[in-house]
Amino acid sequence: MSSQVVQVSIFVVVTAIIALLTYLKCRGHGRGKGQEGQNKEFFLAGGGLKWYFVAGSITLTNLSTDQLVGSNGNQMALLALWEFAAVIGLIILAKVFLPVYYKYDCTTTTELLEKRYNNKHIRAVISVLFFLSSALIFCPAVIYSGALFMKTMFGVDIPLMYIATAFAAVGAMYAIFGGLRAVAVSDTYSGVLLLGMAIVVLFLAMAAIDYDFTGIPAERLTLIGDDDSPIPWHTLFTGMLFIQMFYWGTNQVITQRAMAAPNIKEAQKGVYAAVIIRFMIVPAIIVIPGIVSFKLYGDVGDAAYGMIVGDVLPAWMSGIFAAAMAAAVLSTYNSNLNSATALYVCDIHEPYINNNTNVPKLSGWITVALTILSLALVPVYAEADSIINLLQQLWGLFSMPILSIFIVGLAFKNVHANAGIAAVVFGVFLYGSLSFEFSPFHAPFGLHYIHLMFITLICCVLMALLINKVVYKQNAEIALAKGSAVPSES
User: Fold this and answer.
1) What is the DSSP letter of 236?
2) Calpha distance 35→195 (Å, rounded)
């Protein structure tokens, strides 16, 4: 029996076992009664996720091929800084954002904005931005990086789009038929497998060079980046903190898992478990194999991780690893699908189109549309020099303007919702003009895009307060989310 047949056979068996375990765990749970009940069951697992499912789902939703392939594709230690900084973001989620989400009984993160600003339109605007980020950035990037990894690791002569289509179809079925409960449970089972296999790859990769990192350029081993590196050291004190605050604290894809626990204590316990995993395991597995691959193969970019895995793992074990990676791709993909659908259904469709809809059926149609769009954008991401750097730069278009409106809403009261909306629109155009090379204002003073994200955030906050004062004649008052919603217009 050929090694490739062994790989594929084990891959199929392990994938089927994960699907079966997920089905057995999730069967018997209803869809919920009434409109709110349907939403809670489909998008928040009925508030029934135990802390270990919260931790597992948060970890695997974030840790996918865009991380393992993209970060290792830079072939330098510096990318570990994203993960160390993420620890701070998760702690802020647990201590700052989760108590507020649970206090207001939110289904989506954007629901908090409606209750703080007393205005449904600001909720819809931010939902649209989140929705677009999933549809145009994360869904296609995950499908592309997953397909690239499988193609590279197995060395198969199959068009990339065929593999991407298979991932997209299976991921969509999880999101359509299982809702968040199935997504979170499969995440956890897959996460244990993926982390275990990634650790095996880590040690086998280091053994392949006899744990000898000599000969690798110093700039690929340092955690202190210079001005020309992907993460200059000084960005850790400006935009990096707020990027993490946004991603872990306000991003529906992540926070939805923590909002699906029975209570705040259970949710926080899950987040703290995710912190431990993030600090102890993730940094090493997303950079060291890439560094080893540089010593073995040279500068091979995003193909690095697939090459090292294909070389160091025996055939039977690579089949297990392929199943774990496929599960990670599906996890991140269907998590984005489920969260994007939640935003559309709860924040756009029900308030503006029909507030008495069949949630599973509508979610299914939205998921199908997002899946088709994701596949259409795969060729665009295939042209990127570095998938992880491209993702971070594109994310800036949405992240800092959105974070600014959360900061204003939580820190102040008596702010007009339209002032916040105007500031968000301003921020998207500001960051785009500062960040992208075709703009005449690109990178003023040679500033790194992470610095530009920090500048965008500050400008958005100031713009919201200025418009509130000048246009709407309202004086913002410091509130710091101590209780009351903002007493502004409706």
Assistant:
1) G
2) 38
